[in-house]
Amino acid sequence: MIYFEDMEVGAERVFGSYHVTREEVLEFARKYDPQPFHLSDEAAAKTHFGRLAASGWHTAAMTMRVMVDCLTEDRQAGLGSPGVDELRWLRPVHPDDTLTVTGRILEKTPSRSKPEIGSVRSQITVTNQADVPVMHFTSIVLMLRRPPSASD
Amino acid sequence: MIYFEDMEVGAERVFGSYHVTREEVLEFARKYDPQPFHLSDEAAAKTHFGRLAASGWHTAAMTMRVMVDCLTEDRQAGLGSPGVDELRWLRPVHPDDTLTVTGRILEKTPSRSKPEIGSVRSQITVTNQADVPVMHFTSIVLMLRRPPSASD
């Protein structure tokens, strides 16, 4: 298991990548964000998106999937998240883009009220295949602290 | 059409509601956030979630759907969003919850570089059927300014 104590401020990592398909962009948009520029190239061409663009919430969801796959493999002692700060959609995400998710640990804080828990703030950056940042946010994750008896 | 000029700082509105189903919680989690507490009651019972809880990103997506339906009906001149601030998942969202989305306009700022655009910051709050807040965030939305020739 990876605990709060194992997180090192300043450490950077690549969580992984996600290939964006047109079918998935349309499926998410129809269900959760049916604005015209998320539903057709024709409508998107009339906006700054230029052509069909993924919902920003879809980009966030794809990013989460990349992070969860990575953290599950790590057996990281995560307890969920109270939220995120300064989420910014910087550039459109289009079908056939490949997104890469990286993280850098900004800060870690032991809980004052719960000695078994700590919180870790990280800068999460998502870039496309041209290495252009398309989204970033600050994540806040609660993690278990290493129990006194834990050996690994 | 509703333009930037029509947005009034301090104005509050109810965007609408969304009923959360178990099937949808599981479908979203399998695809985008397969952490154990989003996949089964048994795993969630071992955590502070207590029972199956929706991914926070799913709650955000359902919230977006409610807002888009409302704004489409209004014919609001929205141009997409550069991001959100201080997104907080305050309480778990469970299957069979009914979420209600409300907004309050905090601030509006004409663009300095683009005279045809303004940005509007709003506090978005999502409550469940017990009127308990489950999520809030500050939205930032770009809107068209009323063209000199527009009559409505």
Question: Helices and strands in order, then pairings?
Answer:
The structure is a homodimer of 152-residue chains.
Chain A: E1 12-19, H1 22-32, H2 41-45, H3 56-74, E2 83-89, E3 98-110, E4 117-127, E5 133-144
Antiparallel strand pairs in A: 1-3, 2-5, 3-4, 4-5
Structural notes for this entry:
Two copies of one chain form a homodimer. The radius of gyration of chain A is 18 Å and the shape is elongated. Helices cover 23% and strands 34% of the residues of chain A. Chain A has three helices and five strands. The interface between A and B is medium-sized, with 35 and 35 residues. Strand 2 of chain A pairs antiparallel with strand 2 of chain B, so a sheet runs across the interface.
Summarize this entry quickly.
The structure is a homodimer of 152-residue chains. By secondary structure, chain A is an alpha+beta fold.
